[in-house]
Design a protein that fits this description.
Blueprint: H1 6-31, H2 36-60, H3 68-77, E1 81-83, E2 95-97, H4 99-118, E3 123-124, E4 130-132, H5 133-139, H6 141-144, E5 146-151, E6 158-160, H7 161-174, H8 180-192, H9 198-207, E7 223-226, E8 230-233, E9 240-244, H10 249-254, H11 256-262, E10 269-278, E11 293-303, E12 320-324, H12 326-331, E13 336-339, H13 340-345, H14 352-368, E14 375-379, E15 391-399, E16 402-411, H15 415-424, E17 430-447, H16 449-456, H17 460-468, H18 472-485, E18 487-492, E19 495-500, E20 504-519, E21 522-529, H19 530-540, E22 542-544, E23 552-554, E24 565-569, H20 577-589, E25 594-596, H21 603-612, E26 617-621, H22 625-628, E27 630-635, E28 641-645, H23 646-657, H24 663-669, E29 672-673, H25 676-685
Parallel strand pairs: 3-10, 12-14, 24-25, 24-26
Antiparallel strand pairs: 1-2, 4-9, 5-6, 5-7, 8-9, 10-11, 11-21, 12-13, 14-15, 15-16, 16-21, 17-20, 18-19, 22-23, 26-27, 27-28, 28-29
Helix pairs in contact: 1-2, 2-8, 4-14, 5-15, 7-8, 16-17, 20-23
């Protein structure tokens, strides 16, 4: 069923048709191997048409009355988070988590561990955040992890060049003075901004006379800015250039051999790491969504490339999820709700293994509080994916900032292991059993290790490793060259060494029967941005009580609530103290995080304060407690209360916190208590 009216569909239809027609043209050009310039022009036109469609769909989308200012007021006032170094003026892109934010993040990570670390029997490791330069050079981060930056020529403020150009073009499009030709030109350029080179960006900034968005001053030509924080390890001339890691994944790849050994040499297996990563964003904005220091949880699931399946795939095959495949994006079609099993059968998702992790990500996010209707999985377009990736899906959460990528799930093939293997001459492979033995031709190089060691000293180890890794063809070429000329160059990395007849005595062809073979594993990588997920949950669960706009609260699932229960004495009388101590002691013994609010304000005000920090249950000690031995237990979402024996209430709270019972079950066991607050809520919603 469409989300749009008939009139809106009438307006959207030609735009979707235009996108679909252009998508067909792009496919035809690629299929016929047309010149790159023709393909690029067609892709630019496709992006421009898609942007027009997206803009119109956004215009027709139901208006969200969400008040971000109120949410941020609550989060900062109740110290979920706040700008870091605030009394010194703060630093953009850095935030401190307060008691509620830090505890919520901890609960979110514990839930993640339950869904992935424990469920998938992953191996948890903790690697250094300081990473030597050669590691990130091999992974490609040092060369490619860059954004284009310009500077305000008067203030020196740094701005991201592509964002600045996009903002300027969007203003031109909205201008009443712009001619239709000018608007069409801006649309075309907007679709190409992401792919502009440094020189092209400079040309466009000058052509459109783009100024600083904050001061209106002139800006410099764009320059490349590497987003990694550079540092050095060690003092003086012996210092080694290093970086703070931009992701947690590389540490797992470097530990592959040890992890494989720990898993008894068998595939598949998964390893994970939870911790901080660092990206020196040029001009970070959007609060917790774009930070310079942030927590990640990343999984590297190592597999035989020929076996992309999972034994638990049937558990997720029937999940119905909002998917936005790349074909829908090319053809201008919206998201489609479909079963993961159907998506695999139709080859929309590349493998059952990728689909399995998409399903597990979906179950985790919805359990953590992301609303199903505000969660979609968008497939990367071919021009978005890294050249080595086979398939990639982003879990995107809808927020007031738009659809925000919170989790990525990529089939990275074996790129990273290959890169580190080549850089270090280390054999990063796994052995797999063959169903049938096979005969392979190989060579045996008879080398004089003593002479090589004496001649090349510290390089001898690398030379011997290179000789051992030579293919039969390489070995025969080396031998032929030595036989003809008496010497031949052996290339090891960026060095070359002259091999003589005395060093290489001969090369012998041999046949081997193999029962096992070495393979370079492929990797499925689910990567979670903890801060982004946390913010999306907070925004999607922000509520306002009926008929009271000042009474804001957070409807978080109990699993991620920072505190599970509050103790609220109705009065400050000394006679309440023994009951308060009894309750607090038992909740502590049961590992239930709780908070005591014995301030002098009215009980309704204290309920509101606990609701603001998402505490799901509240125990109230009142004047009936002493004579009856009972207290009231309040549930946050409904504000309903029951009267319950003080000796049972902590056990009931524990069962609720662990998800062993539902609130409806508690209401069925204990008598209802009607408070003034409930009567007011009932009247407001009547």
């Amino acid at each position: 069923m469409s989300d749009y009216t008939q009139e809106q569909e009438t307006q959207l239809h030609p735009l979707r048709l235009a996108v679909r027609e252009q998508g067909d043209i792009v496919r035809e050009l690629k299929g016929s191997k047309a010149p790159k310039a023709d393909i690029d022009k067609a892709v630019s036109e496709l992006k421009a048409r898609k942007r027009t469609l997206d803009k119109k769909e956004k215009e027709f989308a139901p208006k969200d009355e969400f008040n971000r200012v109120k949410l941020e007021d609550l989060l900062i006032r109740r110290f979920f988070f706040a700008p870091a170094f605030e009394i010194y003026g703060g630093v953009a892109g850095l935030y401190d988590y307060g008691p509620m934010g830090a505890q919520m993040e901890r609960q979110l990570i514990q839930l993640w561990e339950k869904f992935f670390l424990i469920k998938e029997r992953l191996m948890l490791i903790h690697c250094s955040a300081l990473t030597p330069q050669p590691v990130l050079r091999a992974s490609g981060h040092e060369k490619r992890f860059v954004d284009m930056m310009v500077k305000d020529l008067k203030t020196g403020e740094c701005l991201r060049a592509d964002h600045l150009l996009e903002g300027h073009l969007e203003k031109l499009l909205a201008s009443k003075d712009a001619t239709p030709e000018k608007k069409e030109e801006c649309k075309m350029l907007l679709s190409r901004v992401d792919g502009l080179s440094k020189a092209e960006l400079a040309e466009m900034l000058k052509k459109y006379n783009v100024k600083s968005s904050t001061t209106g001053n002139d800006v410099s030509d764009p320059e490349e800015f590497n987003l990694m924080f550079a540092t050095s390890v060690g003092p003086g001339s012996s210092a080694q250039k290093s970086y703070l890691r931009p992701e947690t994944a590389q540490g797992i790849f470097l530990c592959f051999k040890r992890l494989l050994d720990f898993n008894n040499g068998r595939l598949p297996f998964g390893a994970c790491q939870i911790g901080p990563a660092f990206r020196n964003e040029i001009s970070p904005r959007a609060g917790l969504l774009r930070l310079r220091e942030f927590n990640m949880a990343e999984i590297e699931y190592f597999i035989n490339p020929a076996e992309k399946d999972h034994p638990n795939y049937p558990e997720v095959a029937d999940l119905e999820i909002q998917l936005l495949p790349k074909t829908n994006q090319v053809e201008g079609r919206p998201t489609a709700v479909m079963k993961l099993g159907d998506a695999v059968e139709k080859k929309i998702i590349s493998s059952r293994l990728v689909a399995y992790f998409v399903g597990r990500i979906y179950l985790f996010l919805t359990a953590a509080g992301v609303r199903k209707e505000m969660l979609r999985f968008r497939q990367h377009m071919d021009n978005e994916m890294a050249h080595y990736a086979c398939d990639c899906w982003d879990a995107e959460c809808k927020t007031s900032y738009g659809w925000v990528e919170c989790v990525g799930c990529a089939d990275r093939s074996c790129y990273d292991l290959q890169q580190h293997s080549a850089e270090t001459n280390t054999n990063l492979v796994a052995k797999v059993d063959l169903k049938e033995p096979k005969i392979v031709k190989s060579v045996e190089v008879d080398s004089n290790k003593g002479l090589i060691g004496k001649t090349f000293k510290k390089d001898a180890k690398d030379i011997m490793a290179r000789i051992a890794q030579m293919t039969p063809e390489e070995a025969m070429v080396l031998q032929t060259k030595i036989d003809a000329d008496g010497t031949a160059d052996l290339h090891v990395g960026d060095k070359s060494f002259a091999m003589t007849k005395e060093m290489i005595k001969g090369v012998k062809e041999i046949e081997k029967k193999l029962h096992v073979e070495d393979i370079q594993p492929s990797v499925i990588e689910p990567s979670f941005g903890i801060g982004r997920i946390l913010y999306a949950i907070l925004e999607q669960n922000f509520q306002v009580r009926p008929n009271d706009e000042q009474r804001t609260w957070l409807r978080l699932p109990t699993a991620v609530c920072p505190l599970k229960c509050s103790i609220l004495p109705l009065s400050g009388h000394d006679e309440f103290n023994p009951f308060i101590k009894q309750l607090s002691t038992e909740l502590t013994v049961r590992n239930i995080a709780h908070r005591l609010d014995d301030s002098a304000v009215a009980i309704g005000r204290r309920y509101a304060r606990t609701d603001e920090i998402a505490i799901p249950f509240a125990i109230t000690v009142d004047f009936v407690t002493k004579p009856s031995g009972t207290v009231t237990l309040r549930e946050r979402n409904s504000t309903k209360q029951v009267r319950i024996p003080i000796g049972e209430v902590c056990a009931v709270v524990e069962q609720l916190a662990l998800g062993q019972v539902e609130w409806a079950g508690v209401q069925g066991r204990f008598p209802e208590f009607k408070s003034q607050e409930e009567e007011a809520v009932t009247a407001a919603t009547a």
